[in-house]
Amino acid sequence: MTRKRTLTILTHAVLILLVAVLAFPVFYAIVTSTLSFREAYQYPPRLVPGTQFLENVREAWVRASFGRLFFNSVFISLVVSVVKIILSLLAAFAYTHFRFRGRGLLFGMSMITQMLPLPVRILPTYELMADFRWINTYWALTVPFFASTTGILLFRQFFLTVPRELSDAARVDGATPMRYFWQILVPISRTNIAALFVIEFVFMWSQYLWPLIVTTTKEMRVVQIGLKMLIASEQIAPEWNVIMAGTVIAMLPPLVVLLALRKSFAQGIAMQSEK
Amino acid sequence: MQRPSRAFALALVSLGLGFSLALAQKVEITWWHAMSGSRLKVVEAIVDEFNATHPNIQLNALYTGKYAETLTKYVAAFRTGNAPNLVQVYEVGTQTMLDSGAIIPVYEIPGMLGETWDWAQYVIPITNYYSTNGKLWSMPFNSSTAMLYYNKDLFKKAGLDPEKPPTTWKEVEEYGKKLVESGVVDHALSFGWPGWIFEQMFAYHNQLFADHENGRNGRAEKVLFNGPFGQMVLETWARLAKEKVFLYGGPEYSANTAFVSGQIAMLIQSTSSLAGIEKGASFEVGTTFLPRFEGYPRGNSVIGGGSLWVTKGQSKEELAAVWAFLKFLAKKEIAVKWHKGTGYFPTINAAVQELLNEGWFSKDQNYLTAFLQILSGRRDTPAATGVRLGPFVQIREIERAAIEKAVSGVLSPKAALDEAAQKANQLLKQYNELH
Amino acid sequence: MQDERFPGHPLLPYLLILPSVAVIVVFLIVPFAQSVWGSFFVTSPFGTKTIYVGLRNYLELFQSSDYLKSVIVTVYFSAFVVVIGLGASLAIALLLNQKIQGVGFYQIALIWTYALSPAVAGTIWALLFAPATGLVPYLVGRIIPGYTLNWMTNGSLALLVVSAAATWKMLGYNIVFFLAGLQNIPEELLDAARVDGAGPWLTFRHITFPLLSPTTTFLLFMNMLYAFFQVFGLIDIMTQGGPGDATNLLVYNLYRDAFIHLQSGRADAQSVIIFVIIAVAATFQLRAATKKAAYAR
Fold first, then answer.
1. B151, C232, C236, C297: which one has the fewest Cβ atoms less than 10 Å from its Cβ?
2. Is the peptide bond before A44 cis (omega within 30 degrees of 0)?
């Protein structure tokens, strides 16, 4: 009994240590975001928060138009997540509820998305944006992301477990396929939808390379690029206090999404790995 | 079905736009630049003033990212036929622009518009850099060079005279050792932009960096930096690194941190860092000319920064508007404003005179240092004017890699330079094949 | 397999997949084909001249010591992210998968790094390791007097730091999936093993680990994709590939050739090379996944 108890205490100790170690870099970032420029360059480095947080945020806001960048990032992350979810639901519905010519081939094509990440087609895609006159538009920041292998796979797997009786009953009741889809299939998929939303939101929020090349004006940049602009903007010693204020802002939205949807997220992932 | 209606709407909109423009009789021109941060504010102020004083012109200045991004975007825009009227390009992009077939050389513009222009009003070492056969191809805009910054407080602490900075590399070594041995700092010296500083050493001692007269008399086919002079420079730096005098400081501005925080006592860096360094330093900042190697001829330090290029194929009205802006930049007050706001050189002789008259330089001598440096150097040889290379961006990276290898002791200076020269020559060959 | 559940709607399924397929064709497949095509040419920056060069772009890449170095750096970096990252997350997930108090808190306190972007992770680690002024160099200087830790001048240190930063950021993601995988292992199997007298190590080796292998394979692939592509922002913020190309991952090298050096043919060839690597890895993952599925059935 005592041995088990010691083991439990030990487990707790290790876990707490892990939590602390994992969180330390972010803790330090937050502390730095509250310091003045001189305090941030204090030697030895300081671990006690200061009082300059709001000033630093304001500075980041002005210097890199962070407000606008923040809006852009939220906007494109929401749009892409929602559209991706809808398109994946529709496609998964087609692949699981219908037989049609070329289904295997088309499904295989959807799966290939994963093998064609941006870097393997970067120049032609960029030139396509230039031809479409999409440089510095929300079109370029959203439309090329609309196809999702993860989404189609996730929903396909889930739809396959939906008992046939459900669709049969709906059909007998005279429901059209689309009515069945919107009124039955989509509502029972909400856990998966929430999980996918977390995944896609975080994915989109983190985009860096594509926004870097298809946007150039400060009105169209995103938060991630804003960080880089904060670091490089003055060409002198980096103003870590301001940079970290920007970093703290850039961390928040995906964290909020993850925390708010963590239950569904965990369940959705668990369902996904069940097979 | 959507297409025709959308096209129709577009046509309507553009018709409307065209109408209102025609009514206002405004010529709209666009300028893409790479000035961010505090410089952006100065650019915006100048553009606003231009628009206010030129009611028939609407100049739209757009920050389009860093130099490399701006050039990439310009290339893409030119290929799809919607390039801006004016673009700012960094000095390493000069040969690419000359070969682009996309631009009108600025020296031709007054003639095209039936005007004359006094080119002698510009500061010669600056215009020289952007000239080919004595003719100016792009308008100098933001020009800087490199100089030596030093920490006067640390000099005092180490028992050195803060008013007597080193003038030669020998003295740099001597003072550096003293600074390190006295325990004031762990390392004495660092640089920003190592490849550029390496190039500076060639021009500063009137040594050719590449063949065809530094690429100024035909396209360069071979680099010469692995010759005896280059080896001597790099051997000196490697020795300083070994003696802990020199601390390699990364590619661009990262060494500034170490200098501002007092970790090193000397820094070779672009003059454009001056305002930032003075703002961040809690000690007295001194500046002086680049150190020399004794026994080599005198040349000049090279201009860095960017210049403005005019896109070809624009209407006469647009060209006139662009030219009006370039003339506006040459106004004394504007050039003074630009210098005070950014620390870049004023490019007009009259502006220099004005700054001297109003005592600007005596307020802060540091702003004068680099100016005296370029004005006191020679300006009549290709070697002192600076090298021009097609794939300059890559070659500068190659130089940097060689310097890193030599100062960290991975390769001997000679081996590092030979390897770099071979890569650079290969790139030159490929470039020349396409042009 | 899947049955026709709504007969009599021959067009509907095509309409349903049309948006996805259109996006894939226009923005993925066609541009990729253009990458392949473009890799056989060299073009001047302004497109004034294009020359067909056959396989020369590829040959030059394979003969370039810089490109080979980039391959080695990428292999090291990915191996670090995969091996250290997956190992650590599996260990943490095992610890978390116990019946202890406050497990909910621990779970969330250990997976949140998932929500950080690579650029944010890079910025924070750049602060921690800032040469001369950062916290870590300060601590190292205290422990080993006279030693200056400067990753901007020390290539192998820089590679280590970016690898560690990237791994740290990915821990949350890995833990989530490992936990899900662990929770799907039937309790009875583990109990049976315990009854048979198997210790924790044997249980792990013979039951937990094999049953986790679909999750592990999946994570292997995802971590590889992450290490190949998504870390671009982290590298761009922390090192821009330096010092001396020490952290010049393949994706960074590609970006530089495409958008800074303006060498489109060479960049396209690199795109194709990266595709081949990913395709091979994906095939392995797919084969492992289907083998496992068949076995489970």
1. C297
2. yes
